[in-house]
Amino acid sequence: MNLIYHKVAIRGISKIVKILILNAGSSSYKLAIFDFKQPNFSENEPFKAIWEGSLSWNGHKAKLSSRTGKQPPSDESIDNVDHRQALKHLLTIAQKSKAIDSLSEISIVGHRIVHGGSAFQEPTWITPTVKKTIASLIPLAPLHNPINLEGIEICESMMPKARQAAVFDTAFHATISEPASTYPGPFEWKEQQIKRYGFHGINHEYCAQRTSFILKRDLSELKIISCHLGNGASLAAIAKGKSIDTTMGFTPIEGLMMGSRCGSIDPGIQLFLQQQKKLTTDKLFHILNYDSGLKGISGISGDMRDILRLISEGDVKAKLAYQIYLHYLKRHIGAMAGVLEGFDALVFTAGIGENVPQLRKEVCLSLNWLGLLLDEEKNESITSDAIISSKHSKIHVLVLKAQEDWSIANACWNLASIS
Hints:
CATH superfamily of the largest domain: ATPase, nucleotide binding domain
Structural class: alpha/beta
Shape: globular
CATH topology of the largest domain: Nucleotidyltransferase, domain 5
CATH architecture of the largest domain: 2-Layer Sandwich
Number of strands: 14
Strand order of the largest sheet: 5-4-3-2-1-6-8-7
Helix content: 25-40%
Number of helices: 15
């Protein structure tokens, strides 16, 4: 997926103006509108969305937030609404903001789809067959694929003339080698498509290309460890612009400790809990996805901001949660470095990666022996994409803003240019 903008002739969509991005999470929607005829870009730089919105829900109550351009966000809450009603209300706000006069201005709606399995390795137009395949993958991403499908169906009903496109989080990792993607269980697993798929590929790919641009080095020359650290978290080992390994696997549970997901644990623990403690599959699923990670250890929250606040107040469990998180992160960075046989750049991105300088500092200190040296002043003061390693460092360290919405919009534009 080429994330660099090029002016191209669009066959069949010559009047394309605005693209709506719907990034659906397990309990939220994030939206952005991009105007591809507005000259608010420079080559190799992301567009700025002309409007952004989000909604999160708890039962039938929805919290909405929206922002036009650089204006401060406006927030409101509405009761007794389902997801379709809440989304419709948010798009009404977009129209009132003058970002769009009507929904008919939207030429394409781009959707982030978490799990594409082996079926999808490139962005694709959404058809009944594509939706059926996404639905068949629900067991592999039960928290995400159902809400992704719901978002598609809502947008199809609200914008029947717009083309719907799917961009898959798993697609970037399709280049992982057979030995790296195959689990060491029975060979039948491989035949059943039980393998490492990887996730967060949209942002990992963007970060690799953005790193190449900032360092002014050809992507084919670089070995990069990309650290996507949000509520969900994963690392990617990237060589010559291709993913060669990643920490998430068959599902988004594997790998790093996360906000409420456990990451990699001994599978014998699950067998013990089922056999000796008589936990049901549903109960175990809930524990691994919702009651583990930072939330599970702290007993209070899976939000790193809360964890840091609790640590400052002397909370022992929160401190342990942070220390475990840091340990898992260091361990897996070491694994990615081994697979790459050395690396040129370490990238921090997403909510925690972009906003917790103390974590970045502690990770980088553990890599001093490799000649990686942090510029502590830059690390503390960083506000946008930049290099935070010392000029004497043998390895570059960067902080990059996650740009999933822009990446999806650009993928939709490129998809339209060839179809």
